[in-house]
Amino acid sequence: MSDDALADALRRLDPARTPVDAPLPLDAERRVREIVGRPAAGARRAPRARRRFAVPGVVAACVAVLLAVVVGVVAAPAPSASALTPDPLAYRPVSDSVAEVIDEAQDRLAEAGGVNSSERRSLSLGWYFSATADDADAATVFRREWVDLRWNADLSGQIVTTAAEATNAAGDTVPSTDPTPGTLISELTFRRGQYSPISFETPEATPDAMADWIRLVTGADEIEAADAIVGARRMLEEWTLTDAQESALLDVVEAAPDATVLGETTDRLGRPAVAVAGVPSGIASHELALLISTETGRILGLEDTLRDADPALKLPADSVAEYILWDVDAWKNGMR
Amino acid sequence: MTDETDFVALFREHYTPVRRFIERRVSHAEAAADLTMDCFEIAWAKRVPGEPFGLPWLYRTARNLIANEYRRRDREEALWSHLHDEARTRSTDGSAVMTARLLDAMKALPERDREILWLTYWEDLSAADIAVVLEMSDGAVWTRLNRVRAKLRPLLSEAPAAEGTEASYERRRPR
């Protein structure tokens, strides 16, 4: 028997599971960004002992699209954490209850002319802040980025991340060191079978089906407002939902006993919205607000704000930790 | 190019080979993923700007990390159990006997000889690179590799004629 036959036999026993041409896992990209953002030689710490501060509960429950954002992030020394956060949205108080606010949104969703078929696509404009507990001065700043995920039933797909422009919201400026808006930051391609969605199909457009799905992805037995908002986020990070499906999602938010109305506002793209909020039970220092369009009833975005000052991050109370906006095709295409 | 940018570029280039290297030696998928990142964390901590690390250095670091895993004996047994399971899944009826025999023979090899074999055929490393990984001379690598080949070849010769067709595996052709 020749050496070639021996080589063939041995190679056939190769137990490596990761394909040679597999795309880099998104969590690995995120980890390496954390690693290079730390102090240099002699500063090695146990990898899993670290605590990540960016929207802790939400990040823990976050999906591939958010991780994809990190792909394009560059670790950069931050002049000061608070200087890099956009101003929080200003809310005008309203007298409506959560049920009234959501009922009005659902009435608008029920009007003809909205989105009638779901799509395996999520286009978002987001801004994220993150830092590490042991070195907040060398914070990792997550820039404002467009994240465009398109995927298919055969689990192929693509995530394209590009640098975004400043929005017209106060304090929402792009640092001068950032890449020019429109710069391609990363492009991840998934071959057939490689993309791993949270949900292969969207739940039925019923409150019960949506509630079941949210329980599944959040692990919550009794759905609180923050669970419903995180669940909505996870869904919208992989899917463009129909108006009927969004209406069912809003039913779940409405049913949460701790949901509150923050008031009316205009989001960072100038769209009129009303905000319904919740405080995650595991991270009471954050407040998650779901922005609902007062024109169409659709979910426009999510804002995550610190309720208390965070000395480790050197961020005062009311600082924005991240925001993410959906239904933004017109802005991405330059039509607005 | 900054230090960080250089490192991330090398990370992207070497991540999959290192991950595959560890997967071949650690059966638990999550542990393999963690060890892969631990390996790069060490690489970052020990980096020397302007002197990029190479795969052999990463493999050597990964070996040390894996050795820590193996200090618990059950980890190594789990690996061999995994290798047998994988081989059974991929084998045709005719090749199963030969495959089992080959695995048993590999398991019986001295650890360093087995590593030379795997680095040669699974990682496709040259003798010079293997020498870096195992911290030994090129000549010693060649001597040991030839000795191991001579030991394993008869196992294939004694195998049934129908075994081990290419169609029975979806593995890449040897380079």
Plain-language structure description:
The complex is a heterodimer of chains A (336) and B (175). Chain A has 336 residues and is α+β, with helices and mostly antiparallel strands. Chain A has one domain. Helices cover 26% and strands 21% of the residues of chain A. Chain A is built from 9 helices and 9 strands. Chain A has a 9-stranded antiparallel beta sheet, with helices on one face. In chain A, strand 2 and strand 3 form a beta hairpin. In chain A, helix 6 packs across helix 7. Chain A starts with a helix and ends with a helix. About 14% of the residues of chain A have low confidence. By secondary structure, chain B is an all-alpha fold. Chain B has 2 domains: 75 residues, RNA polymerase sigma factor, region 2, helix turn helix motif (Rna Polymerase Sigma Factor, Chain: A, Orthogonal Bundle), CATH 1.10.1740; 75 residues, Orthogonal Bundle (Arc Repressor Mutant, subunit A). Chain B contains 8 helices and no strands. In chain B, helix 1 packs across helix 3, helix 4 runs antiparallel to helix 5 and helix 6 packs across helix 8. Chain B is globular. The two termini of chain B are 33 Å apart. The C terminus of chain B is likely disordered. The interface between A and B is large, with 39 and 50 residues.
